[in-house]
Amino acid sequence: MELKVLRKNILGHKTECLIIGRFEGRTENPALKEVDAALGGAIKCAIQAGDFKGKLNQTALFYNSGQLSTERVLIIGLGSRREFCLERLREVSGKAVAEMKKIGARVISTTLPQTVEGMIDDVDIAQAIAEGCFLGAYSFDEHKTEKKDIPKEIKTLNMVLPLRYKGIKKIEEGARRGEIISQNVLFARRLVSSPGNVATPSFMAEQAIYMEKEADIKATVIEKEEMGKLGMGAMLAVAQGSSQSPKFIIMEYKGGKAENKPYVIIGKAVTFDSGGISLKPSPEMDEMKMDMSGGAAALGTVRAAAMLKLPLNLVALVPATENLPGGRAYKPGDILKSMSGKTIEILNTDAEGRLIMADALTYAERYKPKAVIDIATLTGACIVALGSNASALLGNNESLKKELLRAGDETGERVWELPLWDSYKKQIKSDIADMKNIGGKGAGTITAAAFLDQFAGKYHWAHIDIAGTAWEKEGRPYIPKGATGVGVRLFIKFLENSLRV
Ligand code: BES
Ligand code: MN
Ligand code: ZN
Q1: Tell me: the pLDDT tens digits for 297-321?
Q2: 16 in helix, strand or coil?
Q3: CA-CA distance, 215 to 192, in Å (whole number)?
Q4: Cα(358) to centroid of ligand 3, in Å?
Q5: Mean pLDDT score across all residues of the chain
């Protein structure tokens, strides 16, 4: 989809569908009035008949009978004016685009910027509309060979502004930012949606190397032998049961001064989690192809930061492996030596994510990071606690957590804090090793974080569990069913905010 910003008289604007917003209540806006007059009052009739009230995400479609240059007009409800916010703007944009996709329109035009002009900053307005549209239009059809089963792709999205519009430069800037960020969310979604036989650890490494050519990023892949030399015993144990070799992917972006400490993002990339010897039940096991969502988010974030040329230094560490019950697989009862030197007694091979993350947390120390944030589909318990509405947040630094909470509110990729009190640590005490890899009954998300805390070095650290937010089961306005690409927008907002202080 190509995004254009135009200043045009909407009545004469040639497009397949014009998207116009309307708030609930007696609130008309100039675009709506103009178009309604050209339609002979058809929209007003729909409102008077009570068929269209302007409720959030409500839609009504009208056809042009000659007075307009558009073929159709889609009216979308913006809900109450008082409750309007950026998240709602993303939602209505996503919803409108999904309707367009259903119809099969190829060239569409939105007038939303002018309807909400002045309510929010122009850059934010355009960015939210762009994000809603790009993310709402997403579908994963790469593996369908029957053309008729594939929805037509929208080729052009125009943001149409009236000739008098003053904030055009800001709208253009927001549109550009929204497009870059969305492209990288979509990059993450495609990786996550890709099946385990495609998105293998080597495939993920190839993606990183490919990125090196596209943007100003350095990619390094640590192979199995080197992992051995580094002493990554936890990572290697998880990989043992699979014939796919593990990859430890490093992406470095240097947009800041050489002496600026980098942020490090660590993303879990278990490209398929069968549970290993502690095998998962068959129903829904297929969904465990998404167990690399954290890694996809980390890669997407670095790519977006580079494309946006953020003036900061950023590193992504992505430990990538399968978790399978092969003949050489690690077993319950095994004791591993991690890169930190600490020993781990394995009681369940399905608690593999924390093992690969442990070695990555140790590896992160060499960067003397400003902060380390890890992101992982780590625990089913997180879904029990927060469902799909928020990711869990834990960590050792208050201001880092506060900034992540704020970025979550601003992007709609909400995070919610769980406590990480010392008293939880006893749940992972082992009788015969330094710790065990599961915490027993209760507080599964917290005990997993308490485990990671043993490996987080002296740096500021936060952990984000996205088990419930990485995969959307129902479908929401700009988050269609399937991979969500969660994390990319959250991190970019967090990084941008960090530049403002
Ligand atoms: N990848 C899973 C967690 C998960 C579950 C993510 C459902 C998304 C949806 C993780 O590796 C896992 O299996 N965790 C276990 C830990 C347990 C054995 C302590 C879990 O949550 O059941
Ligand atoms: Mn598992
Ligand atoms: Zn897992």
Answers
A1: 999 999 999 999 999 999 999 999 9
A2: strand
A3: 21
A4: 14
A5: 97
